[in-house]
Amino acid sequence: AQKVTQAQTEISVVEKEDVTLDCVYETRDTTYYLFWYKQPPSGELVFLIRRNSFDEQNEISGRYSWNFQKSTSSFNFTITASQVVDSAVYFCALSEREDSSYKLIFGSGTRLLVRP
Amino acid sequence: DAGITQSPRHKVTETGTPVTLRCHQTENHRYMYWYRQDPGHGLRLIHYSYGVKDTDKGEVSDGYSVSRSKTEDFLLTLESATSSQTSVYFCAISESGENSPLHFGNGTRLTVT
């Protein structure tokens, strides 16, 4: 079975610190997709990024960056110069193919608290 | 925001009663999913649908059934609610599956007393 592990249950940092959220996955598929979602205190789930298994280039979007390393089955997420508004639960997810359909398997999430 | 509406948003029910949660989309997306969110477990897939009348089980499907008679509606039914089904339930939609991100509804908070 495919699996996503987010070993960090909770992280607390002071504003302006950099923070990295870890995600390790297991899959037998040669082609797959990885995702990150954010869930702020208000509760909605917000899509952040999608990465396919053939593209190992790191991606940067403002203060957010993602490091995909196929060799270590990791897809880590770094927030640079964290802000209080970054406080949220962050989920990593992996697409799983089931015959001709697809589903997303989520990790258990990392709760990030950014203190002023 | 993706056009996804979950109803009801909150529900309190008693053990043993049937409960149906509704997910309605206006995006005409093929895939629809039901997840439950519990502390320490993240999001776990209950059931999903890849077309009208095409559904399959997720990792925590026991005690739940689903139906999709129209593209826009995906119903989740708890035939006889138990306290262990107290949770926040999220519906999600996806345009094409594997490489399409899921877009989530705002969730339904269900309490079984």
SSE inventory with pairings:
The complex is a heterodimer of chains A (about 120) and B (about 110).
Chain A: E1 3-5, E2 10-14, E3 19-21, E4 24-26, E5 33-39, E6 46-52, E7 59-61, E8 64-69, E9 74-79, E10 88-98, E11 101-106, E12 110-115
Parallel strand pairs in A: 2-12
Antiparallel strand pairs in A: 1-4, 3-9, 5-6, 5-10, 7-8, 8-9, 10-11, 10-12
Chain B: E1 4-7, E2 10-13, E3 19-25, E4 31-38, E5 42-51, E6 54-57, E7 64-70, E8 73-78, E9 87-94, E10 103-104, E11 108-112
Parallel strand pairs in B: 2-11
Antiparallel strand pairs in B: 1-3, 3-8, 4-5, 4-9, 5-6, 7-8, 9-10, 9-11
Average residue-wise pLDDT of chain B: 93
Q: Rg of chain B from C-alpha positions?
A: 13 Å
Q: What oligomeric state do the depicted chains represent?
A: heterodimer
Strand elements of chain A, count: 12
User: Number of helix segments of chain B?
Assistant: 0
Assign a percent range to the helix content of chain A: under 10%
Give the amount of beta strand of chain A, in percent.
Answer: over 45%
* Estimated radius of gyration of chain A: 14 Å
Main sheet of chain B?
A: 7 strands, mixed
> CA-to-CA gap between the ends of chain B?
33 Å
How would you sum up the global shape of chain B? globular
Specify the overall morphology of chain A: globular
Most strands sheet of chain A = 6 strands, mixed
Q: What's the helical proportion of residues of chain B?
A: under 10%
Summarize model confidence as the mean pLDDT of chain A.
91
- Look at the helices and sheets of chain B and give the structural class: mainly beta
The run of helices and strands of chain A is EEEEEEEEEEEE
